[in-house]
Amino acid sequence: MMVKKRGFLQQLNIPKQCQKYGLSLWQCPQFLFLIMGIVIIGVSLISYALGTRYLVEPEMVALLVLLVTIVLFVIAFTIVRNFERLAEVSRMKTEFISVVSHQLRSPLSNLKWAIELLMSGRLGKIEEKQTEYFKILKENSARMAELVSDLLVVSRIETATLALKKKEISLEELTKELISEFNLFARASNVEIKFQPQKNLPQVWLDPSQIKLVIENFLDNAIRYVKEKGKVEICLKKTDKAVLFEIKDNGVGIPKEDRKYIFQKFFRSENVLRYQTQGSGLGLYIAKAIVEKSGGKIGFESEESKGSTFWFTLPIK
């Protein structure tokens, strides 16, 4: 009996039910049902007021109010029930991705160390042809590890468990570190990176490990989607109460019809697929979630075949 009572009370705890599905309050089926219940009561009262004004017999007024209430309640219950099923399917999908991603991390790590051990030659001489195959294995295992990492971040975003450990930090120094890491990739891609930070920039309040993912994604995209000789310009400057990060490239750009989907999960523009087949389509979705959770804003401007400019802001403490 106590178990049933506890289960009923949990159903009435709307914020907890919304957290279970990883949805905001306005997207939660239980909260929507509550709102629709209030609407039904309001419509019933209006029906009663109109009935007493235009109908003589009280029985007819009561019947009208009862019919309106029943019809609205059935419609509301059907809609909310369908929303609840969709939310449950979404929750199960997120949990499945999380479990599978966690389970894949260990074997991928083991595969990485095994390949590196074999390539080192400590277990025997490695022929040149074998080294080529080992390099292919290493590259593909790294791509799989990156995908698994992205899926884990997406899972945390959707379940509202992405924790940010904020502290004051120089966005300029963090950007310089990441540019130095990408320099080799940029030179190999025949791309020049220019960094233009404003002088005396204030520190910003952020989680370095998470914002690092955002900047890495912007840099990787800017370099990867340049057709020939390219140029990437990064600008840092102070706005009203924030620091603006802006990265501009002269790459393939984004078609007008694709721009509204650019921050959606798994979306990749068709013109991008012609130049670069790698990528999961999760990077910009993750970047948007991290920036907004950090209290900032994110956006872009782009023109096909001419390039793109992506930007985000982060608040100053």
Summarize the structure.
The protein is α+β, with helices and mostly antiparallel strands. Helices cover about 60% and strands about 15% of the residues.
Kindly describe this structure.
With 317 residues, the protein is an alpha+beta fold. Helix content is 60%, strand content 14%. It has nine helices and seven strands, in the order H-H-H-H-H-E-H-E-E-H-E-E-H-H-E-E. It has helices at 2-12, 14-21, 29-54, 58-120, 128-158, 171-188, 208-224, 270-275, 283-293; strands spanning 167-169, 191-197, 204-206, 230-238, 242-249, 298-303, 307-315. The strands form two sheets. The protein has a five-stranded mixed beta sheet. A two-stranded antiparallel sheet has the order 1-3. Strand 4 and strand 5 form a beta hairpin. Helix 7 (208-224) packs antiparallel against helix 9 (283-293). The chain is elongated and about 95 Å long. It starts with a helix and ends with a strand. Mean pLDDT is 81; it is low at 1-9.
Strand content: 5-15%
Overall shape: it is: elongated
Structural category: alpha+beta
* Strands in their spatial order, largest beta sheet: 2-4-5-7-6
Tell me the major beta sheet: 5 strands, mixed
How many beta strands in the DSSP annotation? 7
Terminus-to-terminus distance:
51 Å
Q: What does the average pLDDT come to? A: 81
Helicity range of the residues?
A: 55-70%
Radius of gyration: 27 Å
Order of helices and strands: HHHHHEHEEHEEHHEE
Low-confidence stretches: 1-9
The number of helical elements comes to: 9
